[in-house]
Design a protein that fits this description.
This protein has about 300 residues and is α+β, with helices and mostly antiparallel strands. The protein has a single domain, classed as Glutaredoxin (3-Layer(aba) Sandwich). It is globular and about 50 Å long. The protein binds glutathione. Glutathione (GSH) binds next to helix 2 and helix 4. InterPro entries: Glutathione-S-Trfase_C_sf, Glutathione_S-Trfase_N, GST_UstS-like_C, Thioredoxin-like_sf. This is GST N-terminal domain-containing protein. It holds the Pfam family GST_C_7.
């Protein structure tokens, strides 16, 4: 099954004593996974999306480099950015997103670390603080049998710890229902066979068809997903003015959820997305729509 989840490990980042101002001539490079063209419509990897939403919120000039999925290990090795996830057997799992900032000569190889990096390096840029103080007490137990386990949040500074925990729990919640998306995976035709074979290998199943989820089993998982989103939705209900957790003001917590919503928006059958968007008073549909102001693919 496609594996899409999280860890939080900073790779290399040089610190600078002054706050550099990003300038268009010094545009950052953002690496995302190449999915079926047109990428603007079909790109749907949740962790890259979390980082894209954060970059756009900060209004940082950057350009996306689209990386074929089988080339990710080569890219990370060539840039000397260590893996931030491991397979269950302990071997490295090389992932995107990855961000290169020439202004500080930094390479950051994890979506959460990218958001933290942007906040620390460009605190006042764009719409401001990505991490305003808020309580994000949502928990969802991780599945101990995942072939690519989620990595627990690193012990980061207290300023970001609440968000780091939220990231891991939201990842666990959506990952538990990711089988709903498998049949809609927008493969890049150039790499489709190789990527399918890799997903099959990782999961130890005999073929791609084994991931299919239909009939009663699908109805059950949709119901479980509805319940899970209901639990997450309780946090959003604290400020009923919405559409974001803090009402009119977006934060990285909304982007964590938004990255996953994007995946489900692209990969679920349309009729199921309409259901998801309407559950719990339309909360998640409204959130998805509101995030479109930060969703430009550059
Ligand atoms: N903790 C990492 C996790 C990144 C991750 O799992 N990325 C997935 C896409 S969402 C990936 O690169 N998968 C590559 C593959 O399955 O080969 C982050 O937040 O950046």
């Amino acid at each position: 099954m496609p594996t899409t989840t999280t860890t939080t490990t900073t790779t290399t980042s040089t610190t600078s004593t002054t706050t550099p101002t990003p300038h268009p001539s010094n545009s950052l490079t953002f690496y995302d996974i190449a999915l079926r063209p047109p990428v603007e419509k079909n790109c749907a990897s949740p962790n890259p999306w979390k980082a894209r939403l954060a970059l756009n919120f900060k209004n940082i000039p950057y350009k996306t480099t689209w990386v074929p999925q089988p080339d990710i290990p080569k890219l990370r090795r060539s840039l000397q950015v260590p893996a931030v996830r491991q397979f269950a057997d302990g071997s490295d799992f090389f992932t995107l997103p990855l961000l290169h900032d020439p202004s500080t000569d930094s390479l950051v190889g994890d979506s959460f670390d990218i958001a933290v990096y942007l906040q620390k390096t460009y605190p006042d840029a764009g719409a401001g603080d990505l991490f305003p103080t808020q309580t994000l007490d949502y928990t969802f137990a991780q599945d101990p049998t995942l072939v690519v386990p989620l990595t627990q949040s690193r012990d980061s500074s207290p300023q970001f710890a609440e968000y780091a925990r939220f990231n891991v729990n939201v990842d666990a919640a959506f990952t538990a229902h990711v089988q709903l998306t498998v049949q809609g995976f927008p493969f890049d035709p150039e790499t489709e066979e190789a990527v399918k074979a890799e997903f099959v290998r990782r999961a130890g199943v005999s073929g791609w068809e084994d991931f299919a989820l239909e009939g009663e089993a699908r109805v059950k998982m949709l119901e479980a997903f509805r319940e899970t989103l209901g639990g997450l939705g309780k946090l959003f209900a604290r400020d009923p003015s919405g559409p974001f957790l803090l009402g009119a003001r977006a934060s990285h917590a909304d982007f964590i959820v938004g990255g996953w919503l994007r995946m489900f928006r692209v990969m679920l059958p349309e009729s199921e997305w309409v259901q998801v968007a309407g559950w719990h008073g339309g909360l998640f549909g409204r959130l998805y729509d509101a995030l479109q102001v930060y969703a430009e693919v550059k």
